[in-house]
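Annex B. Sample input.
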Amino acid sequence: MSQTTKKRRDARPIQRHIPLSLRFKRVLRAWQLYVLLAPALIYVAIFKYWPMYGVQIAFRNYNPIDGFSGSPWVGLDNFVRFVQSYQFAQVIGNTLWIAVLGLLIAFPVPIILALVVNQLQSERFKKFTQTVLYSPAFISTVVVVGIMFVLLSPRSGLVNNVIKLTGGEPIFFMGTPEWFRPVYVISDVWQNAGFSMIVYLAALASIDPSLHEAAKVDGASKFQRVRHIDLPGITPVITILFILAIGNLLNVGFEKALLMQTDLNLSASEIIQTYVYHAGLQQAQFSYSAAIGLFNSVLNLALLLTFNTIARRTQQASLW
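Annex B, continued. Sample output.
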């Protein structure tokens, strides 16, 4: 064993067991902080952990009369039923298409917007641009979908009127399955990109200005400063947000998908969340829909753990 390895091992802090009484005294000394923390802990316990008791209905043939514990146990039958369902491939495929397409397009856009806005020289124009880009996040999803139906109407919609003026044929965007995914992703980028941009602008604000000043002295252009200073400076934030986005990959926006869904585009708009809604609430298949929801959550957890492990092993920023 080399001397360097021995020194590194010797430099590691010694893990000592702290007595329970000493820990209790530390808590008492900082009781005000724990009082401030208590509402958040109570909220998480009541609304996040306690409902997990009801997850067991995914493994039962649940009926309201017998309750959670009284309903007959069926094991993995509900999961097998979903996997063997003729709609399984369609539902999973639609969800993955929208999720991956949204990740590839919607994730880089806020980064690009933040880098562009950060380079604006006029503070007044920069604030105006931030406000314009950020404001769509305050519009309700119901209102956004309503605007989309009006703009994309095949008869009186602005988009189809422009298509007619250029000599094209009107397109029934909201009734054509092939157009559901592009319309969904583009509208999602328009609505949420400005909100995500704020996080990256905050990360850019934390970069030392002296780095840019030194780069200017060395003759670096704006593009070179963005590439060699700004991007490396916000890489940890990008990595963390990318891992969180991967962990939430299959949670495609239920509300917008359901509002955009019609009988004509159902083959492309039926995703896991809308399928759970139809099976659980409209058809009262509580155990079956709970199993599908649990299946979706397990896949998201697996993706989160996988990409977080990869980031940690490649010495990038990670969640833990």
